[in-house]
Design a protein that fits this description.
Order of helices and strands: EHEEHEH
Number of domains: 1
Shape: globular
Radius of gyration: 11 Å
Number of strands: 4
Strand content: 25-35%
Structural class: alpha+beta
CATH architecture: 2-Layer Sandwich
Largest sheet: 4 strands, antiparallel
Strand order of the largest sheet: 1-4-2-3
CATH superfamily: HPr-like
Helix content: 25-40%
Number of helices: 3
């Protein structure tokens, strides 16, 4: 299992388009991928779960990845967050 904290840097936060990108990227990997915000923890492969987090600008999330390709999955998702979901 690997994990890393990420900060949402795109001004609009995670709305429909970033959520769809996140789910698409997460589904490229076989590992279980969870996103934790406070006490809430959701499956990163669920668009409804991601939208329900209500993650806004400067929110800190923890990505938790477990599986055969966990390191590659974590790196890909962190890159997506760092690139502001290709919005800016």
């Amino acid at each position: 299992m690997v994990s890393q904290e990420v900060t949402i840097k795109n001004r609009a936060g995670i709305h429909a388009r970033p959520a769809a990108l996140l789910v698409q990227r997460a589904n490229e990997y076989s590992s279980q991928i969870l996103i934790k915000k406070g006490d809430n923890q959701i499956n990163a492969k669920s668009i409804m779960g991601i939208l329900a987090l209500g993650a806004s600008y400067n929110s800190v999330l923890e990505l938790i990845v477990e599986g055969d390709d966990e390191n590659q999955a974590l790196e890909a998702l962190v890159t997506l967050f760092n690139n502001r979901f290709e919005e800016e």
